[in-house]
Design brief:
Layout: H1 16-26, H2 37-75, H3 87-94, H4 99-115, H5 117-124, H6 130-139, H7 145-156, H8 167-181, H9 183-192, E1 198-204, E2 208-214, H10 217-236, H11 243-256, H12 274-278, E3 285-287, E4 291-293, H13 295-305, E5 346-347, H14 354-364, E6 378-381, E7 391-392, E8 396-399, H15 401-406, E9 413-417, E10 423-427, E11 433-437
Helix pairs in contact: 2-4, 2-5, 3-4, 4-5, 4-6, 5-7, 6-8, 7-8, 8-9, 10-11
Amino acid sequence: MFESPRTPNTPTAGPAPGVLTSLLDLLPTMDTAGLDEADLIDVLATAEAAKNALSGLQARAAVALDAAVRTRHLAEGLPAEKAGAGVHTQVALARSESPHAGHRLVGMAQAVVNEMPHAHHSLATGRLSEWRATLLVQETACLDAEQRRQVDEQLLADPSVLEGVGTRALVARARKLAYAASPSAVVDRARRAVKDRRVSLRPAPDTMSILSGLLPVAQGVSVLKALTMEADRLVGIGDGRSRGQIMADTLVERLTGRASAAAVPVAIQLVMTDRTLFQGDGEPAFLPGYGVIPAQVARDLIRRAGGLRTPGTSTGGADDLPAPQQLAWLRRLYTAPETGELVAMDSRTRIFPAGLARFIETRDQCCRSPWCDAPVRHHDHVLGWAAGGRTTAANSAGLCAECNYSKEAPGWRTETVTGARHTTVVTTPTGHHYRSQAPPLPGDTS
């Protein structure tokens, strides 16, 4: 186990931001050339402990920020239930994270600093990583404060317990202790967790995607068993596909009612230039919910949507199944040649009409808050309607619900500024500024 050369038992006095800035200036000048193997291992271990200790400092700063904002909000007359609004977003922006991650970071910080003194000490002295601390917080989330302290004492009072223990084993110990502290709380939590079931999609390399389902354990096992049995059956009768391919194809077929190679009649808002579509240009396309895809892959999607197949080609296997005749609808959007920005649209109503809403979603692609990759759920006025803001493309921003609600907290301001593409600047209650620019679209050379 690496021993930290300095164990800070008491907070260090002095201007912490200035000290950290000096450290950031110093780190790039440190050279590892010429160090022997033992010294390089010491650098790796010391740097890892320093990262963990800095995470402890961030946790204390987040808790102090939350307390300061709540105190200010109450002094300003805000209702108690609204005090502290926007803190998690400020923490997320400062750490270049999404607001969703900001919730997790602030929650972890409050639990560790206020209710888990041994975990906090292990984090502050570099023995425990922020991620492992987060997992311990999650495993004890169903307990009250006293029960959580009890688990913390049993698990981490002896720092040597972390030596050589993997993350999965550490979490298993915490789970066991949590159950011993309050069996009913753990059981109730498991029952309530059913309401969190969901399905999500995230990009994977090579224009693939990962479809995930968070399901109750019995349903998850049942789904996997059904796919496995079908794969075993088809492999047994000589199907040429691998078991993994059969399971993936069966999942698509049973969910959509169509062969896996057939076009699924769902609007996907594929964005591409006319040169890519009609002239074989190599400019990549953009697929909302996934990201950039190669030009040829985009053209293949269009051909399949229309039931077309490139003459003289055969891919073999499931890809040669007959494709039903579908319609591929094309909607023309024009960009300014100088900037690549979509041509503006506006409306006289407060609510963004469907056409303008689609325009905003195409331009912004995902939530426009810095570092937030969530899907667009709200079409927001940058300058509020009540303050005279118009329902126009220029005065709009696609936001997720979380970010839209956060900007309504006292002291937040968003404004549009001049930029190569649609650009906004978010100003937080502390006066920090964060710039957001609409991502480039296919054909944008700016």
